[in-house]
Amino acid sequence: MTTKSILQTQQHTLHLFLNNPSTRTPTIVLYVASFGGALHAAVTTFFYLSIGASTLEIGRLGFIMSVGALMGSPMSGWALDKYGPWIPISVTAVCCAVGCLWRGVATSCASLRVSAILLGIGINL
């Protein structure tokens, strides 16, 4: 393929994306949420330590989030086929929002575990 044909293909794909609101809107919402969610990554560990979580507990929170992602993973393909992109992406955004809110108001490691499950499901649904 030539550079010109590659650029034409990318331009065509962008045109299809921008002209399909059922895919465009939830995708843009998810990208904005992901960007906003990444802003706190630099201080998350400090927040966990200030609540009293040990380094082992912080590692467990990462594991719990991975398990939550595994729970949401089998449902994602089925939900996309059954409902289209809007519903699964909306549920993902809600799980991520509630998980982040829950983590933000957490006062104990138990609350952090609940938020990790919600965030894990939201990450991979």
TrEMBL record:
Q: Does the keyword Membrane apply?
A: yes
For membrane topology, the record states:
Multi-pass membrane protein
PROSITE patterns documented for this protein: MFS (PS50850)
Manganese listed as a keyword: no
Q: Which residues cross the membrane?
A: 28-49, 61-80, 86-105
GO CC terms for this protein? membrane
Q: Which Gene3D superfamilies match?
A: MFS general substrate transporter like domains
Every copy of the Major facilitator superfamily (MFS) profile domain together lies at: 22-125
Q: Which domain of life is it from?
A: Eukaryota
Q: Where in the cell is it found?
A: Membrane
**Single GO molecular function:** transmembrane transporter activity
List the keywords (alphabetical).
Membrane, Transmembrane, Transmembrane helix
Kindly give the InterPro entries that the UniProt entry links to this protein.
Answer: MFS_dom, MFS_sugar_transport-like, MFS_trans_sf
Q: What is this protein called?
A: Major facilitator superfamily (MFS) profile domain-containing protein
Source organism per entry reads Skeletonema marinoi
